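Can't paste images in this forum, so I'm doing it all in text. The chain is below; anyone willing to post the predicted structure tokens underneath?
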Amino acid sequence: MADFTSMFAKADNDDHGVLMDRIYRHQRYIYDLTRKYYLFGRDRLIAEIGLKPGDRLVEIGCGTARNLVKIAQAYPGVELFGLDASLEMLKSAEETIRKAGLSHRIKLAHGYAENLSPAMFGETKPFEAALFSYSLSMIPDWRAAIAAAAVHLAPGGHIHVVDFGDLTGLGKLGRAAMLGWLALFHVAPRVELLQSLEQQKGAALRFLPGRYAFLLTASSLKV
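Text version of the structure:
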């Protein structure tokens, strides 16, 4: 008998991959230039990760590899991996890594967050760190994405997140305008995740002004 659940999940993933390619086919050329004006907190989180030589970090939704290159430069001796659902974005990621001379330290793979595993990169060892940088707000099944990252963490490993907050500090009109603008890019702040995080112990949760974005470091997440 056919596994209809798996079939529907694959169809959803395929649709998402097609959507991401359509969005970024042209945007990838200006992505880093434009996103620096509103994807705040990324460099702060990178500075706080505190990786050691020999650690292995995977970024889920690595985009142009902007973060991976900065992490490689900040943390010598760290092994890095990038996963993305968009083949178009991975073209830019490969070019970014090549220009930085880091092809020997960063491996890329095309795939979906909920299917994450070291095997996607031809590896067997788990990761010391999993990074979601403004990607959970674009991943349809973000709960499954977090679960997959947690499963493949090494003992003592951490999940790191920077993403849009609930925007409540922007005021009613400011929040509505921001949500409408984000929706144009198929971005949806995960308010349920944020509400859950604020009730959990052991999660280092910080907010940017206006609750515009949040930064998180946690050894485990219940979502």
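Helices lie at 4-27, 31-35, 42-49, 66-74, 87-99, 142-151, 171-183, 191-197. The mean pLDDT is 86.
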